[in-house]
Specification:
Elements: E1 2-3, E2 6-8, E3 11-18, E4 21-31, E5 65-67, E6 72-73, E7 78-79, E8 91-93, E9 101-107, E10 110-115, E11 119-130, E12 136-150, E13 165-167, E14 170-175, E15 180-185, E16 188-191, H1 198-206, E17 212-218, E18 223-229, E19 237-242, E20 247-252, E21 258-262, E22 265-270, E23 273-276, E24 286-287, E25 290-291, E26 294-300, E27 308-317, E28 321-328, H2 346-351, E29 359-361, E30 364-368, E31 397-399, E32 402-408, E33 419-428
Antiparallel strand pairs: 1-3, 2-3, 3-4, 5-8, 6-7, 9-10, 10-11, 11-12, 13-14, 14-15, 15-16, 17-18, 18-19, 19-20, 21-22, 22-23, 24-25, 26-32, 27-30, 27-31, 27-33, 28-32, 29-30
Length: 431
Protein backbone atom coordinates (compact mmCIF):
# COMPACT_ATOMS: atom_id res chain seq x y z
CA UNK A 1 0.00 0.00 0.00
CA UNK A 2 1.08 3.67 -0.34
CA UNK A 3 0.17 7.03 1.24
CA UNK A 4 1.08 10.65 0.46
CA UNK A 5 1.10 12.70 3.69
CA UNK A 6 2.11 16.41 3.73
CA UNK A 7 5.40 16.78 5.64
CA UNK A 8 6.84 20.09 4.44
CA UNK A 9 5.44 23.06 2.58
CA UNK A 10 5.29 22.19 -1.15
CA UNK A 11 6.94 18.82 -0.43
CA UNK A 12 5.22 15.46 -0.25
CA UNK A 13 6.50 12.18 1.10
CA UNK A 14 5.60 9.01 -0.76
CA UNK A 15 5.72 6.04 1.57
CA UNK A 16 5.64 2.54 0.19
CA UNK A 17 5.58 -0.46 2.49
CA UNK A 18 7.07 -3.77 1.55
CA UNK A 19 4.54 -6.54 1.00
CA UNK A 20 3.83 -8.28 4.31
CA UNK A 21 6.04 -5.99 6.44
CA UNK A 22 4.52 -2.67 7.52
CA UNK A 23 7.66 -1.66 9.43
CA UNK A 24 9.86 -1.70 6.35
CA UNK A 25 9.12 1.61 4.63
CA UNK A 26 10.74 3.13 1.54
CA UNK A 27 10.24 6.89 1.25
CA UNK A 28 10.49 9.16 -1.78
CA UNK A 29 10.23 12.95 -1.50
CA UNK A 30 8.32 14.71 -4.27
CA UNK A 31 8.45 18.50 -4.49
CA UNK A 32 5.99 20.66 -6.40
CA UNK A 33 7.22 22.54 -9.43
CA UNK A 34 5.04 25.65 -8.76
CA UNK A 35 5.48 28.24 -6.04
CA UNK A 36 3.14 27.54 -3.08
CA UNK A 37 1.45 24.93 -5.22
CA UNK A 38 -1.00 27.53 -6.44
CA UNK A 39 -2.86 27.17 -9.68
CA UNK A 40 -0.98 28.83 -12.56
CA UNK A 41 1.69 30.16 -10.19
CA UNK A 42 5.31 30.64 -11.30
CA UNK A 43 6.96 27.34 -12.22
CA UNK A 44 10.50 26.60 -11.07
CA UNK A 45 13.14 25.32 -13.53
CA UNK A 46 15.09 22.13 -13.20
CA UNK A 47 18.42 23.98 -13.41
CA UNK A 48 21.74 22.23 -14.23
CA UNK A 49 22.38 18.82 -12.78
CA UNK A 50 25.23 18.43 -10.35
CA UNK A 51 26.21 15.16 -11.99
CA UNK A 52 25.48 13.12 -15.12
CA UNK A 53 23.80 9.80 -15.17
CA UNK A 54 22.57 7.57 -17.95
CA UNK A 55 18.86 7.73 -18.58
CA UNK A 56 18.97 4.06 -19.65
CA UNK A 57 21.25 1.23 -18.62
CA UNK A 58 20.92 -0.54 -21.96
CA UNK A 59 24.01 -1.11 -24.10
CA UNK A 60 24.48 1.42 -26.88
CA UNK A 61 26.77 0.86 -29.88
CA UNK A 62 28.12 3.93 -31.66
CA UNK A 63 29.26 2.24 -34.87
CA UNK A 64 30.71 5.39 -36.47
CA UNK A 65 32.52 6.82 -33.41
CA UNK A 66 35.82 6.07 -31.68
CA UNK A 67 36.93 6.97 -28.14
CA UNK A 68 40.24 6.75 -26.34
CA UNK A 69 40.99 6.36 -22.64
CA UNK A 70 43.61 7.79 -20.30
CA UNK A 71 47.31 6.96 -20.55
CA UNK A 72 49.16 3.79 -19.61
CA UNK A 73 52.76 4.09 -18.40
CA UNK A 74 54.20 0.84 -17.11
CA UNK A 75 57.41 2.53 -15.93
CA UNK A 76 55.66 4.92 -13.57
CA UNK A 77 52.71 2.67 -12.73
CA UNK A 78 50.12 5.01 -14.20
CA UNK A 79 47.17 3.10 -15.62
CA UNK A 80 44.21 5.18 -16.71
CA UNK A 81 42.93 2.86 -19.42
CA UNK A 82 39.64 2.49 -17.54
CA UNK A 83 38.98 6.24 -17.51
CA UNK A 84 36.79 7.85 -20.15
CA UNK A 85 35.98 11.33 -18.77
CA UNK A 86 33.08 12.76 -20.72
CA UNK A 87 34.18 16.32 -20.05
CA UNK A 88 37.27 15.92 -22.22
CA UNK A 89 37.61 15.88 -25.99
CA UNK A 90 38.26 12.15 -26.38
CA UNK A 91 35.76 11.10 -29.06
CA UNK A 92 35.89 11.30 -32.85
CA UNK A 93 32.98 10.66 -35.20
CA UNK A 94 33.08 9.91 -38.93
CA UNK A 95 30.33 10.41 -41.49
CA UNK A 96 27.47 8.09 -40.45
CA UNK A 97 26.15 7.95 -44.02
CA UNK A 98 29.28 5.98 -45.03
CA UNK A 99 28.47 3.07 -42.74
CA UNK A 100 30.06 1.67 -39.62
CA UNK A 101 33.75 1.57 -38.77
CA UNK A 102 35.11 -1.88 -39.62
CA UNK A 103 38.87 -1.57 -39.05
CA UNK A 104 41.50 0.76 -37.57
CA UNK A 105 45.15 0.67 -38.63
CA UNK A 106 47.87 2.85 -37.08
CA UNK A 107 50.75 3.78 -39.37
CA UNK A 108 53.51 6.17 -38.26
CA UNK A 109 51.66 9.34 -37.20
CA UNK A 110 48.39 8.47 -38.96
CA UNK A 111 45.38 6.43 -37.94
CA UNK A 112 43.61 4.92 -40.97
CA UNK A 113 39.87 4.41 -40.42
CA UNK A 114 38.07 1.94 -42.70
CA UNK A 115 34.31 2.38 -42.94
CA UNK A 116 31.95 0.29 -45.03
CA UNK A 117 31.89 2.88 -47.82
CA UNK A 118 34.76 5.24 -47.04
CA UNK A 119 38.41 5.34 -45.97
CA UNK A 120 39.65 8.15 -43.71
CA UNK A 121 42.83 9.13 -41.93
CA UNK A 122 43.47 11.06 -38.72
CA UNK A 123 46.62 12.48 -37.22
CA UNK A 124 47.95 10.81 -34.06
CA UNK A 125 49.27 13.09 -31.29
CA UNK A 126 49.08 16.01 -33.71
CA UNK A 127 46.51 18.44 -34.99
CA UNK A 128 46.19 20.31 -38.27
CA UNK A 129 45.94 24.10 -38.47
CA UNK A 130 45.16 25.58 -41.88
CA UNK A 131 46.72 28.76 -43.19
CA UNK A 132 44.87 31.51 -45.03
CA UNK A 133 45.82 29.80 -48.30
CA UNK A 134 44.18 26.57 -47.11
CA UNK A 135 47.45 24.67 -46.59
CA UNK A 136 47.64 22.42 -43.51
CA UNK A 137 50.29 22.86 -40.82
CA UNK A 138 50.88 20.09 -38.32
CA UNK A 139 51.10 21.24 -34.73
CA UNK A 140 51.93 19.25 -31.63
CA UNK A 141 49.22 19.23 -28.98
CA UNK A 142 47.71 17.04 -26.31
CA UNK A 143 45.16 15.75 -28.82
CA UNK A 144 45.47 11.98 -29.22
CA UNK A 145 43.40 11.71 -32.40
CA UNK A 146 43.41 14.80 -34.60
CA UNK A 147 41.11 15.95 -37.37
CA UNK A 148 39.66 13.23 -39.63
CA UNK A 149 40.31 13.62 -43.36
CA UNK A 150 38.78 11.35 -46.05
CA UNK A 151 40.72 9.75 -48.89
CA UNK A 152 39.53 10.52 -52.40
CA UNK A 153 37.14 7.96 -53.88
CA UNK A 154 33.90 6.39 -52.74
CA UNK A 155 35.46 3.13 -51.61
CA UNK A 156 35.38 1.33 -48.28
CA UNK A 157 36.01 -2.14 -46.87
CA UNK A 158 32.31 -3.17 -46.80
CA UNK A 159 31.87 -5.69 -43.97
CA UNK A 160 35.00 -7.69 -44.75
CA UNK A 161 37.83 -6.42 -42.53
CA UNK A 162 39.38 -9.88 -42.86
CA UNK A 163 40.41 -8.91 -46.41
CA UNK A 164 42.92 -6.36 -45.09
CA UNK A 165 46.64 -6.99 -45.66
CA UNK A 166 49.66 -4.72 -45.50
CA UNK A 167 53.19 -4.76 -46.89
CA UNK A 168 55.48 -1.77 -46.63
CA UNK A 169 53.36 1.28 -47.29
CA UNK A 170 50.74 -0.60 -49.33
CA UNK A 171 47.42 -1.69 -47.84
CA UNK A 172 45.14 -4.12 -49.66
CA UNK A 173 41.44 -4.70 -49.03
CA UNK A 174 38.15 -5.43 -50.82
CA UNK A 175 34.94 -3.49 -51.27
CA UNK A 176 32.29 -6.10 -52.04
CA UNK A 177 29.54 -3.50 -52.49
CA UNK A 178 31.56 -1.92 -55.30
CA UNK A 179 32.83 -5.27 -56.66
CA UNK A 180 36.42 -4.08 -56.32
CA UNK A 181 39.78 -5.08 -54.87
CA UNK A 182 41.73 -2.03 -53.76
CA UNK A 183 45.22 -0.87 -52.81
CA UNK A 184 45.87 2.14 -50.58
CA UNK A 185 49.31 3.70 -50.92
CA UNK A 186 50.93 7.12 -51.07
CA UNK A 187 49.18 7.83 -54.37
CA UNK A 188 45.76 7.17 -52.83
CA UNK A 189 43.31 4.36 -53.54
CA UNK A 190 43.83 2.25 -56.69
CA UNK A 191 41.41 -0.37 -58.02
CA UNK A 192 43.71 -3.30 -58.76
CA UNK A 193 40.78 -5.55 -59.71
CA UNK A 194 40.49 -3.45 -62.89
CA UNK A 195 43.74 -5.02 -64.17
CA UNK A 196 42.02 -7.39 -66.58
CA UNK A 197 39.74 -8.92 -63.91
CA UNK A 198 36.89 -6.44 -63.48
CA UNK A 199 34.16 -8.78 -64.76
CA UNK A 200 35.49 -11.68 -62.69
CA UNK A 201 35.40 -9.82 -59.36
CA UNK A 202 32.08 -8.18 -60.14
CA UNK A 203 30.51 -11.64 -60.55
CA UNK A 204 32.29 -13.09 -57.50
CA UNK A 205 31.30 -10.31 -55.11
CA UNK A 206 27.73 -10.34 -56.41
CA UNK A 207 27.30 -13.83 -54.87
CA UNK A 208 29.36 -13.18 -51.71
CA UNK A 209 26.37 -12.32 -49.52
CA UNK A 210 27.35 -12.59 -45.87
CA UNK A 211 30.39 -14.68 -46.77
CA UNK A 212 34.05 -13.92 -46.13
CA UNK A 213 36.75 -12.27 -48.19
CA UNK A 214 40.04 -13.44 -46.64
CA UNK A 215 43.17 -11.54 -47.64
CA UNK A 216 46.83 -11.81 -46.74
CA UNK A 217 50.29 -10.81 -47.94
CA UNK A 218 52.30 -13.74 -49.27
CA UNK A 219 55.78 -12.82 -48.03
CA UNK A 220 57.32 -15.74 -49.93
CA UNK A 221 56.16 -14.69 -53.40
CA UNK A 222 55.53 -11.00 -52.62
CA UNK A 223 51.87 -11.22 -53.67
CA UNK A 224 48.52 -10.22 -52.23
CA UNK A 225 46.51 -13.43 -51.87
CA UNK A 226 42.73 -13.22 -51.69
CA UNK A 227 40.15 -15.95 -51.03
CA UNK A 228 36.52 -15.09 -51.85
CA UNK A 229 34.19 -17.44 -49.95
CA UNK A 230 30.44 -16.95 -50.57
CA UNK A 231 27.99 -17.69 -47.77
CA UNK A 232 25.90 -20.02 -49.95
CA UNK A 233 27.35 -23.11 -51.60
CA UNK A 234 30.80 -24.64 -51.45
CA UNK A 235 32.37 -22.78 -54.36
CA UNK A 236 35.23 -20.35 -53.70
CA UNK A 237 38.03 -18.57 -55.53
CA UNK A 238 41.57 -18.09 -54.19
CA UNK A 239 43.99 -16.05 -56.30
CA UNK A 240 46.94 -13.67 -55.97
CA UNK A 241 47.98 -10.28 -57.32
CA UNK A 242 51.60 -9.55 -58.28
CA UNK A 243 52.81 -5.95 -58.12
CA UNK A 244 55.66 -6.61 -60.54
CA UNK A 245 53.41 -8.12 -63.20
CA UNK A 246 50.59 -5.67 -62.34
CA UNK A 247 48.10 -8.50 -62.68
CA UNK A 248 46.45 -11.54 -61.11
CA UNK A 249 48.96 -14.28 -61.79
CA UNK A 250 47.80 -17.42 -59.94
CA UNK A 251 44.70 -19.28 -58.80
CA UNK A 252 44.78 -21.83 -56.00
CA UNK A 253 42.68 -24.80 -54.92
CA UNK A 254 42.62 -24.16 -51.15
CA UNK A 255 40.12 -22.36 -48.92
CA UNK A 256 41.80 -20.83 -45.84
CA UNK A 257 40.33 -19.37 -42.67
CA UNK A 258 43.15 -16.85 -42.17
CA UNK A 259 46.55 -15.77 -43.53
CA UNK A 260 49.66 -14.79 -41.58
CA UNK A 261 53.40 -14.13 -41.99
CA UNK A 262 56.06 -15.06 -39.44
CA UNK A 263 59.82 -14.78 -40.04
CA UNK A 264 59.54 -14.65 -43.84
CA UNK A 265 57.25 -17.70 -43.81
CA UNK A 266 53.71 -17.71 -45.19
CA UNK A 267 51.05 -19.51 -43.11
CA UNK A 268 47.35 -20.17 -43.37
CA UNK A 269 44.87 -21.67 -40.92
CA UNK A 270 42.15 -24.22 -41.63
CA UNK A 271 39.71 -25.79 -39.16
CA UNK A 272 41.95 -25.05 -36.17
CA UNK A 273 45.20 -26.16 -37.84
CA UNK A 274 48.18 -24.02 -38.91
CA UNK A 275 49.81 -24.83 -42.26
CA UNK A 276 53.16 -23.66 -43.63
CA UNK A 277 53.23 -22.99 -47.37
CA UNK A 278 56.09 -23.58 -49.84
CA UNK A 279 57.58 -26.59 -48.08
CA UNK A 280 60.07 -28.29 -50.40
CA UNK A 281 59.56 -31.75 -48.86
CA UNK A 282 55.83 -31.81 -49.73
CA UNK A 283 54.36 -32.34 -53.19
CA UNK A 284 53.31 -29.21 -55.02
CA UNK A 285 49.62 -28.19 -54.97
CA UNK A 286 49.06 -30.17 -51.76
CA UNK A 287 46.87 -28.13 -49.43
CA UNK A 288 45.54 -29.30 -46.06
CA UNK A 289 46.34 -32.91 -46.90
CA UNK A 290 44.64 -32.91 -50.29
CA UNK A 291 46.74 -32.97 -53.46
CA UNK A 292 45.79 -31.79 -56.92
CA UNK A 293 47.31 -31.24 -60.33
CA UNK A 294 48.63 -27.92 -61.62
CA UNK A 295 46.77 -26.45 -64.59
CA UNK A 296 47.35 -23.51 -66.91
CA UNK A 297 44.80 -22.27 -69.43
CA UNK A 298 46.13 -20.15 -72.28
CA UNK A 299 44.42 -18.44 -75.22
CA UNK A 300 46.02 -18.05 -78.64
CA UNK A 301 44.63 -14.85 -80.12
CA UNK A 302 47.22 -13.51 -82.56
CA UNK A 303 45.62 -11.71 -85.53
CA UNK A 304 42.10 -12.13 -84.11
CA UNK A 305 40.44 -11.18 -87.42
CA UNK A 306 42.31 -13.88 -89.35
CA UNK A 307 40.96 -17.43 -89.69
CA UNK A 308 43.91 -19.71 -88.96
CA UNK A 309 44.94 -23.36 -88.99
CA UNK A 310 46.69 -24.07 -85.68
CA UNK A 311 49.15 -26.84 -86.57
CA UNK A 312 51.46 -27.33 -83.56
CA UNK A 313 51.75 -26.45 -79.89
CA UNK A 314 55.06 -25.72 -78.15
CA UNK A 315 56.09 -24.84 -74.63
CA UNK A 316 59.14 -24.08 -72.49
CA UNK A 317 59.37 -25.51 -69.00
CA UNK A 318 59.45 -28.83 -67.17
CA UNK A 319 58.92 -32.07 -69.05
CA UNK A 320 55.85 -33.34 -67.19
CA UNK A 321 53.21 -31.11 -68.81
CA UNK A 322 50.50 -32.59 -71.01
CA UNK A 323 47.91 -30.98 -73.24
CA UNK A 324 44.59 -31.95 -71.67
CA UNK A 325 42.39 -30.22 -74.25
CA UNK A 326 42.49 -27.58 -76.97
CA UNK A 327 39.62 -26.16 -79.02
CA UNK A 328 38.78 -23.19 -81.20
CA UNK A 329 35.84 -20.81 -81.44
CA UNK A 330 34.59 -22.81 -84.45
CA UNK A 331 34.29 -25.97 -82.29
CA UNK A 332 37.36 -27.63 -83.78
CA UNK A 333 39.31 -29.70 -81.24
CA UNK A 334 42.51 -31.69 -81.13
CA UNK A 335 43.58 -34.90 -79.49
CA UNK A 336 45.16 -34.68 -76.02
CA UNK A 337 48.96 -34.90 -75.94
CA UNK A 338 50.81 -36.93 -73.30
CA UNK A 339 53.89 -35.63 -71.45
CA UNK A 340 57.36 -36.19 -72.84
CA UNK A 341 58.83 -39.63 -72.06
CA UNK A 342 62.59 -40.11 -72.26
CA UNK A 343 63.33 -43.04 -74.64
CA UNK A 344 65.68 -45.67 -73.20
CA UNK A 345 66.31 -47.74 -76.35
CA UNK A 346 66.56 -47.37 -80.10
CA UNK A 347 63.18 -49.02 -80.52
CA UNK A 348 61.53 -46.50 -78.22
CA UNK A 349 63.33 -43.71 -80.05
CA UNK A 350 61.89 -44.93 -83.39
CA UNK A 351 58.41 -45.36 -81.97
CA UNK A 352 58.44 -41.92 -80.35
CA UNK A 353 57.78 -40.29 -83.71
CA UNK A 354 54.46 -42.10 -83.98
CA UNK A 355 53.28 -41.50 -80.39
CA UNK A 356 50.85 -38.76 -79.49
CA UNK A 357 53.14 -37.08 -76.93
CA UNK A 358 55.42 -34.09 -76.65
CA UNK A 359 58.87 -34.32 -78.25
CA UNK A 360 61.90 -32.52 -76.85
CA UNK A 361 64.34 -30.57 -78.95
CA UNK A 362 66.90 -28.16 -77.50
CA UNK A 363 65.05 -28.26 -74.14
CA UNK A 364 61.79 -27.15 -75.75
CA UNK A 365 58.75 -29.36 -76.18
CA UNK A 366 56.52 -29.50 -79.24
CA UNK A 367 53.78 -31.67 -80.76
CA UNK A 368 51.45 -31.73 -83.75
CA UNK A 369 47.78 -30.91 -83.23
CA UNK A 370 45.71 -33.86 -84.47
CA UNK A 371 42.15 -32.82 -85.28
CA UNK A 372 39.50 -34.99 -83.60
CA UNK A 373 36.42 -33.06 -84.75
CA UNK A 374 34.21 -34.09 -87.68
CA UNK A 375 36.09 -33.66 -90.96
CA UNK A 376 34.69 -32.74 -94.32
CA UNK A 377 34.34 -35.18 -97.18
CA UNK A 378 37.57 -35.97 -98.98
CA UNK A 379 39.96 -35.54 -96.04
CA UNK A 380 42.32 -38.46 -95.50
CA UNK A 381 42.43 -40.26 -92.15
CA UNK A 382 45.97 -41.29 -91.16
CA UNK A 383 46.37 -44.93 -90.20
CA UNK A 384 49.62 -44.71 -88.24
CA UNK A 385 48.51 -42.68 -85.19
CA UNK A 386 47.90 -45.40 -82.62
CA UNK A 387 45.68 -47.39 -84.96
CA UNK A 388 42.64 -45.22 -84.13
CA UNK A 389 41.15 -44.01 -87.41
CA UNK A 390 38.16 -42.09 -85.99
CA UNK A 391 37.91 -38.56 -87.36
CA UNK A 392 41.62 -37.70 -87.26
CA UNK A 393 43.14 -35.06 -89.50
CA UNK A 394 46.72 -33.79 -89.60
CA UNK A 395 45.68 -30.39 -90.94
CA UNK A 396 45.39 -28.91 -87.43
CA UNK A 397 42.38 -27.10 -86.02
CA UNK A 398 40.71 -24.11 -87.62
CA UNK A 399 39.38 -20.93 -86.03
CA UNK A 400 40.00 -17.31 -85.10
CA UNK A 401 41.24 -18.17 -81.57
CA UNK A 402 42.22 -21.33 -79.70
CA UNK A 403 42.09 -22.15 -75.98
CA UNK A 404 44.45 -24.77 -74.53
CA UNK A 405 44.48 -26.45 -71.10
CA UNK A 406 47.83 -27.82 -69.92
CA UNK A 407 48.10 -30.06 -66.85
CA UNK A 408 51.03 -31.28 -64.75
CA UNK A 409 50.56 -34.08 -62.22
CA UNK A 410 52.28 -33.39 -58.90
CA UNK A 411 53.91 -36.67 -57.97
CA UNK A 412 56.65 -37.34 -55.44
CA UNK A 413 59.96 -36.22 -56.91
CA UNK A 414 58.39 -34.24 -59.76
CA UNK A 415 59.92 -31.03 -58.40
CA UNK A 416 58.79 -27.64 -59.62
CA UNK A 417 56.33 -27.81 -62.50
CA UNK A 418 57.66 -24.73 -64.25
CA UNK A 419 56.00 -23.36 -67.36
CA UNK A 420 57.61 -20.29 -68.93
CA UNK A 421 55.97 -19.90 -72.33
CA UNK A 422 53.36 -21.56 -74.57
CA UNK A 423 53.06 -20.91 -78.30
CA UNK A 424 51.62 -22.33 -81.49
CA UNK A 425 52.46 -22.39 -85.19
CA UNK A 426 49.65 -21.54 -87.56
CA UNK A 427 48.98 -20.75 -91.20
CA UNK A 428 46.32 -18.62 -92.77
CA UNK A 429 43.30 -20.67 -93.62
CA UNK A 430 42.57 -21.26 -97.28
CA UNK A 431 38.83 -21.25 -96.51
Amino acid sequence: MASIPVKYYNTFVLKKFAQGDVNAAFNWYVEESRIKGGYNNVQTGLAPRAFLRAESNRQETLSNSIIYSGILNSRTGINQTNQFPSGEDITRTVDPSKGSIQKLYAEDTNLIIFQENKVNRALIDKDAVYTQEGLPMQTTSNVVIGAIQPYAGEFGISKNPESFAVYGYRKYFTDASQGAVLRLSRDGITEISANGMYDFFRDQFATLGTGRSVGGWDIHNKCYTLSIQPSIGSSFETLSFDEIAKGWVSRYSYKPNLFSNVQNNFYSTKDGGIYLHYVSSVNRANFYGTGSSSTVTTVFNTNPSLVKNFQTINYEGAGNWELTSISTDSDDSANSIKPFAQPTSLVELDNQLFKNEFKRKENKYFANLVNTSSFSQGEVTPLFLGGNTTNWSISGIKGFTAQALLTATNNAGSGNNELFAVSTNYKESSY
